[in-house]
Amino acid sequence: MFSNSSKYALTAVIHLASQTDEAHKKMVKDLSLYTDIPKAYLAKLLQQLSKHQVISATKGPKGGYYLTEENRKLPVYRIIEVIDGTHRLESCVLGLEDCNAENPCPLHDLVNPSKAILLNTLKHMSIEELAGKLNKNDGFSIPGT
Amino acid sequence: MFSNSSKYALTAVIHLASQTDEAHKKMVKDLSLYTDIPKAYLAKLLQQLSKHQVISATKGPKGGYYLTEENRKLPVYRIIEVIDGTHRLESCVLGLEDCNAENPCPLHDLVNPSKAILLNTLKHMSIEELAGKLNKNDGFSIPGT
DNA sequence: GAAAAAGTATGATAATTATCATATTTCGGA
DNA sequence: TCCGAAATATGATAATTATCATACTTTTTC
């Protein structure tokens, strides 16, 4: 479903969301220890996310990665977009370029309902909402169902 | 979602379903031409499917691949199972080994509803049903929705 | 019963993805 | 103002996946 890179990125951002803000930053090293993601690989992913303003970073001593309020407002989908690009999730399940509702591939109708729900969820739920859900662990429903 | 190999396998089996039976077989070469799947790669996939009795084959002149009635009764899921194994589709979206309803990963509740629907569909719809649906192109609904 | 047409088996190459390593830049504090 | 701690940039290696090639076996047909 997601690439390894996206899985790592999602995991890392979720941790950042629940444990950092402008005043409490996290170094790659600590995030790596905590999440079991290889340090150098994680660093690369965080750099990409930072470059695209999905997460924030400050260099130097006392520096590290963290999420601003703005970062938190971004949809979860944005993380995947930056790391994997849009094609992987959006494209036809059989990899056909010209598959759509009018000209569906054999599996289109079979797979699309689930896919649509998933995409809708990823695009509409913000990082903040996801993290909040985790902290409260309250009842929770998928938008669109 | 699916691996390239699974996509190819699905495409190929769908074609076999709509165009072959015990009396009308298809050679790898022709399937390859028709589906635009590299011949040698397709051959390897069909061999795997054949070895696991998902599709049928006869050697020699006038031979080729085809689907029996038994083959057609198999769930679509079986194709993916043979090619990709079960782990890829069933495992946690973040790749955690011990993720489940009691001990869910951060994305579990977010992704699981769509995933459950998809898996349910793949496991309950037979190859025959999928092919029949294509031929008739009639209204169609996903079981479980 | 030999020849050719098919699948079968096995392994080699290429491309992509995951992982690691190293040098560079920036910033805070002594 | 200079040292060290952090992110940043870039590129090298390893592992996996996709693709290709070749030799072997089976079976039909003449």
Automatic annotation (TrEMBL), chains A, B:
Q: Which GO terms describe its cellular component?
A: cytosol
What the entry lists under SUPFAM superfamilies is as follows: Winged helix' DNA-binding domain
Spell out the coiled coil positions from the record: none
Q: Which GO terms describe its molecular function?
A: DNA-binding transcription factor activity
Matching PROSITE patterns = HTH_RRF2_2 (PS51197)
Q: What is this protein called?
A: Rrf2 family transcriptional regulator
